[in-house]
Design goal:
By secondary structure, the protein is an alpha+beta fold. It has a domain of about 130 residues. It is built from seven helices and five strands. Strands 1, 2, 3, 4 and 5 form a five-stranded antiparallel β-sheet that branches. β2 and β3 form a beta hairpin. The longest helix has 21 residues. It starts with a helix and ends with a strand. The relative contact order is 0.13. The N terminus is likely disordered.
C-alpha cells in the first residue's frame, strides 16, 4: 500500500511538471491569435481593433523554413495543378506554409460566420473584400430592419480542405478555395422573441466553399475572403 501511494505521488508530480512545460489546450483557443500574429501567452497584447488576417506561416522568425514541400504534399498531390500552384507560391514567398494556411482558414471561417450571424460589422470589414462586405452588410441591415435577431452557436468543423488555387504571375496574387464542413446552431427570432427560422436545439450542417486572397511577397500579411459559395 505504501509503495502504491509513493508511485501515485510521483506520477502526480510528473504530470504537473509536464503540464507546466507543455501548457494545456482547451479546444477553444482565441482565433485572434491566428490573425494578428500576437499571442495571449506573453509579449505583445492583442489589440481588439487589430483584425489583420495573418494566417499561420507569416511570422517565421522563430521557426526554420522547410527546404522541402512536405506541407504541400500534406494537402495536395505535388504533381497536380493544385500542388504545383502551392509550390509556386512557396517560390515567391518561402514562408508560405499550406498546412498552417488551412489552420488559419479554419479560424477565419468560424470568426466570419459568427460575426455575420451576430451582425458584427466591425469584425467583418477587415476580413472581407469590399463586394463581399457589401453583400454581408446588406443582409445584416435587412435583418435588423425587419426586427429580427439571431441566436447562433458554432459547434465545430468536421473537415476543411484546399480544393483549388490560382496564382497570378503578373501580380503574385493567389486565390485559394477551401471547402468547409461544419456544424452550427442558428435560430432567428422576430421582435416578439418568436422563432421564425431555425431551431435553437437543432444542429445545422454547413458545407461552404470559400475563396481567400492575398498578394505574396509583400509586407502586407492580410488574407481576405473574396468569394463564398457552396
Amino acid at each position: 500500500m505504501i509503495e502504491i501511494i509513493v508511485l501515485a505521488a510521483v506520477a502526480g508530480f510528473l504530470f504537473l511538471r509536464l503540464r507546466d512545460a507543455l501548457g494545456t489546450k482547451t479546444g477553444h483557443e482565441n482565433p485572434e491569435e491566428w490573425f494578428n500574429g500576437k499571442s495571449s501567452r506573453g509579449g505583445d497584447t492583442p489589440d481588439p481593433n487589430d483584425k489583420v488576417v495573418q494566417f499561420p506561416g507569416q511570422d517565421m522568425q522563430s521557426q526554420p523554413i522547410p527546404d522541402d514541400h512536405s506541407d504541400v504534399s500534406s494537402v495536395a498531390d505535388l504533381e497536380s495543378p493544385l500542388g504545383k500552384t502551392l509550390i509556386a507560391a512557396k517560390g515567391i514567398e518561402p514562408e508560405f506554409n499550406a498546412v498552417r494556411f488551412v489552420e488559419g482558414s479554419r479560424a477565419a471561417y468560424e470568426m466570419i460566420l459568427m460575426a455575420y450571424e451576430t451582425g458584427d460589422k466591425d469584425t467583418l470589414r477587415p476580413l472581407l473584400a469590399p463586394d463581399v462586405m457589401d453583400s454581408f452588410e446588406g443582409a445584416i441591415d435587412s435583418r435588423k430592419n425587419e426586427g429580427l435577431s439571431v441566436d447562433a452557436r458554432f459547434i465545430g468543423l468536421r473537415s476543411s480542405k484546399i480544393m483549388d488555387a490560382r496564382l497570378d504571375d503578373a501580380t503574385n496574387t493567389i486565390q485559394i478555395d477551401v471547402r468547409f464542413d461544419a456544424e452550427m446552431i442558428v435560430a432567428v427570432r422576430d421582435a416578439n422573441g418568436e422563432i421564425v427560422e431555425g431551431d435553437p436545439e437543432m444542429v445545422r450542417r454547413m458545407n461552404d466553399l470559400w475563396t481567400f486572397e492575398r498578394t505574396l511577397g509583400t509586407d502586407d500579411p492580410s488574407w481576405v475572403l473574396v468569394e463564398t459559395g457552396d
